[in-house]
């Protein structure tokens, strides 16, 4: 999107002489540090202008999936996990009584394992939005294993690729491939090409992350099914309820809650910060994803520990991280500068305003109107209801009988300069009156509009959204001829 600015049409841009020195305040690099800077080196391999296009051209994708090859292209482990848990939950609903204690425990464990993904896998390890103490890291690593979505290292590698290559062929769950693909298809079917490169060297140095990675197969069984069953069984004797509901049914909800971040959060909602890509903000998505639904903000400011920046927006993950900070379990919570967040919001508001502005019919400018002498104006005013206001000649024939003050107030100014009466001499007209009058322009009075005064600019145009290149556009570059002198 081209840069948008708001300026007043009365503003004048003054050119700076070429020989005038430019002072940078503060200096970009202190002079005393110049000697400490490393020498500039040139990479042997030039960086392509578009990395994604370069990879797509230089690497070959796997052939498309057909009915005859479908069985070889299924990720059977993922398919098994994603189908067994809902099947067990349905069987449990038909055969096992759901007690109140087990219902409460299932909901609590849903949030525990969900936070393992949102506060742990996502905001802590994928985006490093805050620092966690060792006890909190262990808790989130175990809780995340209970969500059965892969190890921290595997999950974060894919998610970092998703952010780096959003909506491209290198995005492992690109929304451009469809809602079903971004929700679950990318897990069930083997991808046609590897996800884009993403650096996870920091995670490879984390002993807790690597411990979980080595022991993940045992941990997902332990935390996904055995632990919730033990709590319900030892706690109130509901072994089967703990297995079917706190284990299988809860897991099914956690899965699709998280998957909605990749699918629903890229399909419904608004784009208040950037519309370059598909992520969107919506309360409904936040509700089903433990606060991850303000996704447009997240993709624009991924290192911010918040998804929802307003206090009333639903973001339990943000509240959990903040609570951990208050008790000393988390520190260095990152928040993007409020000034930069407002820039993003303003950019989108300006873009919307520009779209509205481009659909509106505006009055003719002085460049598009004939220049008429005072004598010619008076001659023509004998046959047409013409008046002069702020240097512009207006034909008010369509409004004479509609004038709220009566026809006589307009008719007595035919052939005259009515600037003073219009600007408060007789009546201080409203913004709507100024805007409407400007639409009746038919000419410019010679000598009456050497430079358009503020009075000549209708209120609707005193603030105008212009693109950066339009601010410095000359009549020659715009194809508009200079007005007659």
TrEMBL record:
Residues 1-31 are annotated as: Disordered. It comes from the Eukaryota. Its EC number is 1.14.19.1. The chain crosses the membrane at residues 74-93, 105-124, 219-237. The keyword Transmembrane applies. Pfam families: Cyt-b5, FA_desaturase. Belongs to the fatty acid desaturase type 1 family. This is Acyl-CoA desaturase. It comes from Exidia glandulosa HHB12029.
